[in-house]
Amino acid sequence: MNLKVNEHIGVYLLYAMILKKVEKRNKVQEIRALITDYLNGQAKLDIRYQPFWYSLNEEPEKLTTSIFKLLDSGWLPDANDNIFAVEMYSGLINETALRNKWLQQLRAAQASLD
User: How do residues 69-86 score in pLDDT, each as one tens digit?
Assistant: First the structure.
């Protein structure tokens, strides 16, 4: 909690998501406040982190929009960066049909590179 948010936003979001799963609400609130303060400044949240932010804040409509925008932006998972990226992003989507649609779009984008 003593790291600069702007340099480690992904780590803060991942930590908050883990804490949320283990029901450490106070610590999640603390991290959410740090990130909110950061975003209230001149900062803009990178598109890669938006789905996690909206999931953390329980904003399902924004989560859905952001996760599909991520694919539309040309983003593809990089196993050298995070071997669990697909699972992490798809795990944010609670609705099975919507998750399957996202995974299909991801596969189509990956197939278009071949």
Answer: 999 999 999 888 889 999
